[in-house]
From TrEMBL, chain A:
Organism superkingdom: Bacteria
Record-annotated membrane-spanning stretches: 20-38, 71-93, 114-139, 151-173, 180-198, 237-258
UniProt source species: Filimonas zeae
Keyword hit for Cell membrane: no
Name this polypeptide is given: ABC-2 family transporter protein
Pfam families in UniProt: ABC2_membrane_4
Keyword Transmembrane helix annotated: yes
Keyword annotations: Membrane, Transmembrane, Transmembrane helix
Example of a GO cellular component annotation carried by this entry: plasma membrane
UniProtKB/TrEMBL annotation, chain B:
Family: Belongs to the ABC transporter superfamily.
Keyword check for Ribonucleoprotein: no
Name of the featured protein: ABC transporter ATP-binding protein
Residue ranges annotated for the ABC transporter domain, each copy included: 5-228
Stored PANTHER family: ABC TRANSPORTER, ATP-BINDING PROTEIN (PTHR43335:SF2)
Keywords, comma-separated and alphabetical: ATP-binding, Nucleotide-binding, Transport
One Pfam family, short name: ABC_tran
Keyword Nucleotide-binding: yes
Organism encoding this protein: Filimonas zeae
């Protein structure tokens, strides 16, 4: 069944220009931003001296896995955008109806979308892995190591969670413009505000508290910002990784379950 | 004949609107089954429930006495409401997706495109098609895999007169191959010309369903005329068993209970009374008359 569903989705994608252009943008952005950062820390001038003091050697193994996944996690809106476009396209063209009429069960339709998300997560992971590998090997005094490679897994999980959230939002809103706008406003602004508000309400400190468990922030904090931690002189306000992992899996399951239930019970 | 689709007690609400109200009927195998009704009478809702894109509030339906599953839908060709395709893909690539979902019909793509006269445009994007071409592509998709049952919702929507005639011929051809066709339409002419069975709906309620002859003919109408219409009228009024006489367009319409009109007797009666008929014809009530009578 999985092969058949993937084949159907592939037929929808392979001649869709928008999809390939956005995918190319993802590669360009992940590589490009990491390159700018890499140049900044490896150039021999005064500014880089200061940067190195704060950051250490971010592009040497094994730190490079953390650095590249952390930078790339800011680009997660790009594959999420693909998911929003692909899902709302089905509503625009009413092909979600037609697929079911033609003999796809409603559950199969949702599974096929989750398979696309899984495939896009693997592709994103591959992009990030290769980027990290190239920058790691190009750094001075850097010898290949898979220590810290768990960040690759965290990144994969983060991709999956963001895209599942995008899928749920698209299924609920059905219209591309609205879904894209709400998705961006939520991940860029609303969530940060909510996390801070929850933290302050519980602990009195916006940087400390259970706010970090809130929706997508749980997966965000799996790959913490290193420089920020250093500036706080080692004091770590973040919940333990294992807690964040459990929270992320719970949200992921919830997004997928709600998506499935929404599509299985609604009038199409 | 065994029934292909059995519908029992289907009910659907959209908010407070009662879109379907306890609708039940059977579609016999090999029939061309027309579902008639004015706009908003629940035709598309009914077909949407059968194809699982709309959830019913109550009632059930079976396909060959089994619950209608996704796998069974693969064996049925469906055109529902509007042609739904990926705008950025060509006609051929869209049909490849349909074939992949149905798990059949991959080799049929060229054949069905030729059947609906779209073969020359098979590489054009769907978004460049006119309304009529989109509709024809949707019919092509329904024909993929040569299904034995077809569900067509307003199949001639958006087509020009030639296209309408082509589709009508196609439906007649498919019916002669023994396929069962369920067709919703508000075009009476279309239904009258091709259907063997008909169901008439209004505001979500089923008014009547059955064989076309049964639904339409609940009385015999005989049209007669003669040079002296006034004299003819007095004479026909003495005919036995006659229910009613109406004047219409220089003719007289004689209404009889169903199956009782005897043309020979009428002719003899008039001739014996000194009148020669210039016209004598048994007429079925037209679907339009029946439809307006039922839905008003």
């Amino acid at each position: 069944m999985i092969i058949r569903l993937l084949k159907i989705e592939w037929l929808k994608l392979k001649n869709y220009k928008t999809f390939w252009i956005i995918l190319a943008l993802l590669v360009a952005c992940v590589v490009g931003i990491n390159y700018v950062y890499f140049e900044l820390v490896s150039s021999k001038n005064q500014a880089s001296g200061v940067v190195n003091m704060v950051l250490g050697t971010p592009f040497q193994f094994p730190d490079v896995w953390h650095t590249v996944t952390q930078v790339a996690s800011y680009m997660l809106f790009i594959p999420s955008l693909i998911v929003v476009i692909l899902t709302t396209n089905e509503y625009n063209f009413k092909t979600h109806r037609q697929n079911v009429i033609d003999g796809l069960s409603r559950t199969e339709f949702i599974i096929s979308k989750v398979l696309v998300i899984a495939a896009l997560s693997i592709v994103s992971l591959l992009i990030v892995f290769l980027t990290a590998l190239v920058f790691g090997l190009s750094s001075e005094f850097s010898y290949f190591s898979l220590a810290n490679a768990e960040y690759l897994f965290y990144f994969f999980l983060q991709c999956f969670t963001y895209m599942s959230f995008a899928l749920l939002l698209s299924l609920l809103l059905k219209r591309s413009g609205l879904a894209i706008a709400l998705f961006f406003v939520y991940i860029c602004i609303v969530e940060n505000i909510l996390v801070a508000l929850i933290n302050r309400a519980v602990s009195g400190n916006v940087l400390e508290g259970p706010g970090y468990y809130f929706l997508l922030d749980a997966s965000d904090k799996l790959i913490p910002v290193k420089s920020l931690q250093k500036m706080m002189q080692g004091k770590n306000f973040l919940p333990p990784t294992i807690n964040l992992l459990v929270a992320t899996f719970v949200y992921l399951g919830l997004f997928l379950f709600l998506s499935k239930r929404k599509f299985e019970t609604a009038d199409l | 004949m065994p029934s292909i689709v059995t519908i029992s007690g289907l009910t659907k609400f959209y908010g407070t609107i009662h879109a379907l109200d306890n609708v039940s009927f059977e579609v016999p195998q090999g029939s061309v089954f027309g579902i008639l009704g004015p706009n908003g009478s629940g035709k598309t809702t009914l077909l949407g429930i059968i194809t699982d894109v709309v959830k019913a509030n109550a009632g059930s339906f079976t396909f060959l006495d089994l619950p209608f599953s996704a796998d069974m839908r693969k064996q049925v060709g469906v055109l529902l409401e509007t042609p739904n395709f990926y705008h950025y893909l060509s006609a051929e690539r869209n049909l490849q997706i349909t074939a992949a979902i149905k798990g059949r019909g991959e080799n049929d793509i060229d054949t069905v495109l030729k059947k609906v006269n779209l073969y020359e445009r098979k590489s054009s994007k769907f978004s460049t098609f006119s309304l009529g071409m989109k509709q024809r592509l949707a019919i092509a998709a329904a024909l993929l895999g040569n299904p034995n049952v077809l569900i067509l919702d307003e199949p001639t929507n958006g087509l020009d007169p030639v296209g309408i005639a082509e589709i009508r011929n196609l439906i007649t051809l498919l019916a002669s191959e023994g396929k069962t066709i369920i067709m919703a339409s508000h075009l009476l002419d279309e239904v009258e010309k091709v259907c063997t069975h008909v169901a008439i709906m209004k505001k979500g309620k089923l008014l009547t369903a059955g064989h076309v002859d049964e639904v339409l003919a609940n009385e015999d109408i005989v049209e007669v005329s003669a040079a002296d219409l006034a004299q003819l009228e007095t004479i026909v009024n003495t005919l036995p068993e006659l229910k009613q006489v109406k004047r219409q367009n220089g003719n007289l319409q004689l209404f009889y209970p169903i199956g009782t009109a005897n043309m020979e007797n009428i002719n003899r009666h008039c001739f014996n009374n000194g009148i020669t008929l210039s016209q004598l014809q048994l007429k079925k009530k037209s679907l339009e008359t029946k439809f307006i009578e039922l839905t008003n």
